[in-house]
Design goal:
The complex is a heterotrimer of chains A (310), B (342) and C (385). Chain B is built from ten helices and twelve strands. Chain B is α/β, with parallel strands linked by helices and 342 residues long. Helices cover 72% and strands 0% of the residues of chain C. The N and C termini of chain C lie close together (10 Å). The chains are: A mainly alpha (310), B alpha/beta (342), C mainly alpha (385).
Chain lengths: 310, 342, 385
């Protein structure tokens, strides 16, 4: 047990938990916008996968990680827009159309990879960005301030989202549309426009998350995300549609995963229990919610399409 | 009504995706399912037909690719061979349907390349007594006269890698990243641990099974956890290890590969890879079939018969004494003086 | 609403999903061309592989079986306004409990063994469904979160058990350690139908379950309560319905159907074993998700889910046949599958409108959530103005 409390191991667990949390945090924040306005998008994982492939591919071809990251976000934007067409304009059943988008992304990203790349070719990932002064703090510096720029960007998105949702007209409109689209509509807020915007934002975040994941890992392969997009959707509920809550959920999931891994590495969790301990992030997320739940209610119009004049 | 415009956008979107899909096809097209078929050799005789059913993509640089490559090698030697591939069939029932369809279609040899397909094969094979089936990796023919099984003694290569890993480690902490403790992965990991401890009894071998064959990010963080625990040498098995190789590369940890030559993933840190050459046993199986024996034998590739090959990375400056230790381990395993199973 | 109204087909409405499928396949054809494969050969292989022969039809029926069972469960949960996306985990739980039952049962005849294992499957799935149901009803934990998380738990449980206590002892003896059980007792095999090698009573069980669910949902007080909770929890509460208990029950029934699907997969498989490749999809074939698609294609109506599952199963089986025929990567089949789902569901509004006689208002009522009372999903809430 004493091996657990060395500086390297403690720093390792926290830093690893943060890295594992980031793709979830990004995808989950994006999904939160859509749900806040009343649209459930189950296709997040498919969008992440296509964002991941396009990001990876661009880096492979150009050698520039930022070009790849922008490309991942752009593909996410396009797919978000397509999802908005499907669920807002065409009013498709939201649960099912998302499954379609997921299957499409899962298959298409693999097909493109097989045809355009073939076998896994590594790319160089994001450079670490040590924050001056802060990164020199003993222990804390290594845990929090020696990451790549993408990780700081992901966490910066939390206060930005908080501000957008609570301090801007756009944010107020999102919440109004999600709670009572009829009332919002009668006040002159375009439900369609707001939902297009939020679902597209969600797609962009998902594509960005996928691109960040692939570039950070420096590789792409079939089903790279391993259903992280679904975990991200679950975390929106964990976070009760609030940026801070979503961040708490992503960090909890990431930390428990990192802790379990480190305990396995050190032999504190024996090999016979490796599967059981791998359940921990999922189980602890549920348990944590059992303790804090019931205080929050979901957006009243979630999953309900809107047609004016009914 | 603005609807038509939005539907227009929808169609546009769809086509954007297709164009994205179809653009830029410059990578080579030798991949996957393209039928690498026949040679000009003969037109008179009917071709010998081989079908492969495999769980992952046939260009995965790992398990599935190893059999497709091997069949292509054998086909090139024989001439007049027709190859069909159904890859990505990780759903066992889908694989069973494919196996059955190929047998019904008159294929001469159906290769069920996945341990998980065996149960289904044992039910299908009796219905097609004139078709030969090969199943791997496994060591069981169900007592059926038309089923071959094949396996890889991956513990042997694992042992050799373990010897080198321990010899090269300066911290005496060695990390292993595995998926789930089953089958070929367990054989390799157990062999590796045995080899490492034989070389350096005092070394610490930390073994993590992440619980997933597919979670690349988790495999990467498993490598990070080994780093935090002081490891300077890593190995791992299954397709998700590409994530761990990346982490090893960034942190200058040494890497040992298996199932395919992984040098291309990290040319500066990959010391060696254990590579499967199934063609060694495929030649025998096909010769048997042509003589009229459709099954009943269990084959294995190992270091001694040349089916398992330790491919060293020429770009890595391996000290001569470590290389000598590896060669000694290989010789010992081939002669039987070293046992690689616990 | 008069019965004759319901039976009067509105051709345009029925054509819409077919046109949507064709549109999706056209995109597939372009991709096939780009891959250097002949789309006509590919799609004729798809069609004949799905429906072109007795053997193909059997394959389609077998593929449709888990879709239908999961889909039937979905019709129950979604009618109660509970979104069950835990079908994958529930199938695994059902399969595991059924398998365990077969392993511990002494050698008993089919008349005992078969009902025992199927019941065990039902119970396993029911437990895996009841947990999120109870968490939602009593602790306010959203079911989307808990079902996604329980899918993650189930896959690890499957690995733990199949490489541990349930493993075939011969695998340990040989050292090959394939995570699978031994061949399960023959008396628990699903009996074959019409003396076929492959066709067993699984599809029949699924159809019976669909009929049973139809009767339950539309002809019993319990079904009425489930539907009323789905329409309005507050109104149901005022009417004296025990809302929380009903939500748990709906999720339990939904999970039970998925669990039965898991048991049918094990005892109707070629191998008559349970085996894992470390993922849920390797066992379920993603039926836990695809069953949702089938149920929604069937308008959340148990009986309409029967043809919907059959057609969707045909698409999956035919896709595999196409892969064999024109040698394209399986990834394409998956992508095509997704496109078909997106196109069909996107055109659903149009279908409803055409079927309801073009009235915007009627169309609106028919699609804003579960329909109010009538059993027919196609014209419910609509009809002649």
């Amino acid at each position: 047990m004493s091996r657990l409390f060395t500086e390297a191991v403690l720093i390792g667990i926290v830093a690893s938990g943060i890295r594992l949390a980031v793709p979830l945090l990004l995808a989950s924040l994006g999904e939160m916008y859509g749900q806040r306005s009343g649209v459930l998008n189950l296709g997040v994982d498919g969008i992440m996968l296509l964002g991941a492939f396009s990001g990876y591919y661009l880096v492979l071809r150009t050698g520039n990680v930022w070009v790849g990251l922008v490309m991942g976000a752009f593909i996410g934007l396009l797919l978000g827009l397509a999802s908005a067409v499907i669920s807002v304009t065409l009013k498709a059943e939201q649960g099912i159309s998302g499954i379609g988008v997921y299957l499409f992304g899962l298959g298409m990203s693999d097909l493109l990879f097989q045809k355009m790349v073939g076998t896994p070719i590594p790319i160089s990932g994001f450079p670490d960005l040590d924050i001056p002064l802060l990164s020199d703090i003993p222990i804390l510096g290594g845990m929090l301030f020696q990451h790549s720029a993408v990780i700081y960007m992901a966490f910066a998105a939390v206060p930005i989202s908080l501000y957008v949702l609570n301090r801007t007209t756009f944010g107020m409109n999102i919440k109004a549309v999600g709670e009572n689209p009829e009332a919002a509509d009668s006040l002159g807020v375009s439900v369609t426009k707001i939902r297009y915007a939020t679902v597209t934002i969600g797609g962009t975040f998902a594509g960005f998350a996928g691109g960040a994941l692939a570039i950070d890992l420096g590789i792409f392969q079939q089903n790279l995300t391993n259903a992280a997009g679904f975990i991200a959707i679950a975390l929106v509920y964990f976070g009760a549609w609030r940026p801070m809550g979503v961040m708490a959920g992503a960090l909890l999931y990431g930390f428990v995963n990192a802790l379990v891994l480190q305990l396995k590495t050190l032999g504190i969790i024996s090999r016979g229990w490796s599967d059981i301990s791998a359940m921990a992030p999922a189980l602890i997320t549920i348990l944590a919610l059992v303790i804090v739940a019931r205080r929050f209610r979901q957006p009243a119009a979630l999953t309900k399409p809107f047609t004016r004049g009914t | 009504m603005r609807k038509p415009r939005f539907i227009g956008i929808a169609i546009l979107m769809a086509f954007t995706l297709v164009v994205a899909a179809c653009g830029d096809d410059d990578a080579d097209d030798t991949t996957a399912a393209t039928t690498a078929a026949t040679t000009a050799a003969t037109t008179a005789a009917a071709p010998f037909r081989i079908a492969i059913v495999a769980p992952s993509a046939s260009n995965d640089l790992a398990f599935s690719q190893s059999i497709v490559d091997a069949v292509n090698v054998v086909a090139a030697e024989m001439g007049n061979v027709e190859i069909e591939v159904t890859d990505g069939t990780f759903v066992v029932d889908d694989a069973a349907a494919a196996i059955r369809a190929y047998a019904a279609d008159g294929v001469d040899l159906v290769i069920a390349h996945g341990s998980q397909y065996g149960g289904s094969l044992s039910e299908i094979a009796p219905d097609f007594p004139d078709t030969s089936f090969a199943w791997g990796t496994a060591a069981d023919t169900f007592g059926l006269p038309n089923v071959y099984s094949y396996e890889a003694a991956s513990d042997e290569g694992g042992y050799v890698m373990g010897v080198m890993g321990a010899a090269l480690s300066t911290s005496d902490v060695i990390g292993v990243v595995g998926p789930i403790e089953v089958g070929d992965a367990k054989l390799y990991v157990d062999g590796y641990q045995l080899g490492a401890l034989a070389e350096k009894p005092g070394a610490t071998v930390n073994i993590v099974y992440t619980g997933s064959f597919g979670d690349v990010a988790l495999a990467a963080e498993a490598a990070e956890s080994h780093l935090a625990a002081g490891a300077d040498v890593l190995t791992g098995t299954a397709q998700m290890v590409v994530g761990a190789v990346g982490v090893a590369n960034e942190n200058d940890m040494l890497w040992f590969g298996t199932q395919a030559n992984q040098t291309s993933l990290a040319p500066s840190i990959v010391v060696a890879s254990q590579v499967y050459h199934w063609e060694v046993l495929l030649r025998d199986i096909i010769a048997n079939i042509e003589d009229g024996t459709l099954g009943g034998e269990i084959y294995s590739i190992d270091l001694a018969n040349g089916g398992l090959v330790i491919e060293f990375n020429d770009g890595f400056d391996l000290p001569a004494d470590v290389r000598a230790k590896a060669d000694a381990a290989i010789a010992g395993i081939e002669s039987g003086s070293i046992s690689t199973t616990p | 609403m008069l019965r004759s109204d319901r039976l009067r087909p509105r051709l345009g409405g029925y054509l819409v999903p077919i046109i949507a499928v064709i549109a999706a396949l056209l995109i597939g054809a372009i991709i096939l061309l780009r891959l250097g494969a002949d789309p006509i050969e590919g799609f004729s292989a798809l069609f004949s592989g799905a429906f072109g022969s007795t053997d193909a039809l059997i394959g389609t029926a077998l593929k449709a079986t888990p879709l239908l069972l999961v889909g039937v469960g979905i019709t129950i949960a979604f009618r109660a306004n509970v979104i069950n996306i835990g079908g994958e985990g529930q199938m695994v739980a059902g399969g595991l409990l059924a398998t365990t039952t077969a392993l511990v049962l002494p050698d008993v005849p089919t008349i005992i063994a078969l009902p025992a294992v199927l019941l065990a499957g039902i119970v396993g799935g029911a437990i895996w469904g009841a947990i999120p149901g109870a968490l939602k009803a009593y602790y306010g934990v959203n079911e989307i979160l808990s079902t996604i998380m329980l899918n993650v738990v189930a896959v690890q449980l499957m690995a733990f058990l199949l490489r541990g206590v349930l493993i075939d002892p011969a695998e340990i003896e040989r050292g090959t350690r394939i995570p699978q059980t031994k061949r399960l007792m023959e008396s628990a095999d699903l009996p074959s139908l019409f003396g076929s090698d492959r066709l067993h009573i699984g599809p029949l069980i699924a159809v019976l379950a669909a009929v049973g669910a139809y009767v339950l949902m539309w002809r019993t007080p319990l079904g009425f309560r489930i539907r009323s909770v789905g329409l309005s929890r507050d109104a149901s509460r005022y009417a004296g319905v025990r809302v929380k208990r009903t939500i748990v029950l709906a999720m339990t029934l939904s999970g039970a159907m998925a669990g039965l699907a898991g048991a049918v997969l094990v005892f109707g498989s070629e191998s008559h074993r349970m085996v894992t490749d470390g993922s849920t999809a390797g066992f379920t074939g993603s039926a836990g998700f695809n069953g949702i698609v089938a149920a929604l294609f069937g308008g959340l109506h148990a009986l309409w889910t029967i043809p919907a599952s059959f057609l969707f199963g045909g698409l999956l089986v035919g896709g595999n046949a196409m892969q064999r025929a024109v040698q394209v990567p399986s990834a394409l089949i998956l992508a095509l599958n997704g496109l078909v789902v997106v196109f069909v569901v996107s055109s659903d509004r149009l279908r409803r409108r055409l079927l309801s006689g073009g009235s915007e208002k009627a169309e609106e009522r028919s699609s804003s959530g579960p329909d109010p009372g009538d059993g027919d999903p196609v014209s419910s809430g609509g009809g002649e103005p």
